Structure formats: C-alpha cells, structure tokens
Amino acid sequence: PKAIFIDKDGGQYEADIPVGQSLMEGAVDNMIDGILGECGGVMSCATCHCYVAEDWQDKLPSASEREEDMLDMAIEPQDNSRLSCQIEMTEELDGITVYLPPSQF
Ligand code: FES
Question: Which residues of the chain register pLDDT less than 70?
Fold first, then answer.
C-alpha cells in the first residue's frame, strides 16, 4: 500500500510502505523530507509529527494517551495531528494522505 505525503508548499510524494511498517519508517526509507523520526518510533521525539487528511482520520485507531502527550511537544499541533511512527500501514490504508508540518523542531 502507498502513502502520500504533502509538504507545506503542496509538493506531493508517494511512498510504498509494506504492511506492518509505520508511516514514519516508510517516509524515512523513501527519504521524504519533513519526517525525521529521530527516536526510531518509541514516542520520545515527536519529529515524526504529521497532519492526517480529513478523509483518513476516522480510519485510524485513536491515539494512545502517550501519543497525545508527545503530540503536545510537537510544533504547532492541531486536531488532526498524529505521530507517524504510531500509524501502522495496512491494506485498508492504501492511499492515506498526510500533510507535513513546516518544521519538526
Ligand atoms: Fe519519535 Fe515518532 S519517531 S515519536
């Protein structure tokens, strides 16, 4: 399944991400600027912050309390903010679209 990342200037990048991998891992593997994933996915950095497109928000399991706490540390969190390391790719998420924040730090 593929994920689509849109940067602050509207640039669109696609990444094929194997089922079971996180969006963060897929973005890093595909060298998508804007997702850093400095902690490697253990919810201690918030540099994998992204904004989930409206159509996709309901399709994701809701964020854990720990993820919510970490999102408070992200730059300019919004209602649709998620940590991309906590979004696990599934077939159902084929085409998931997320917006990249202007900056991760
Ligand atoms: Fe560090 Fe997601 S990669 S919180």
Answer: none
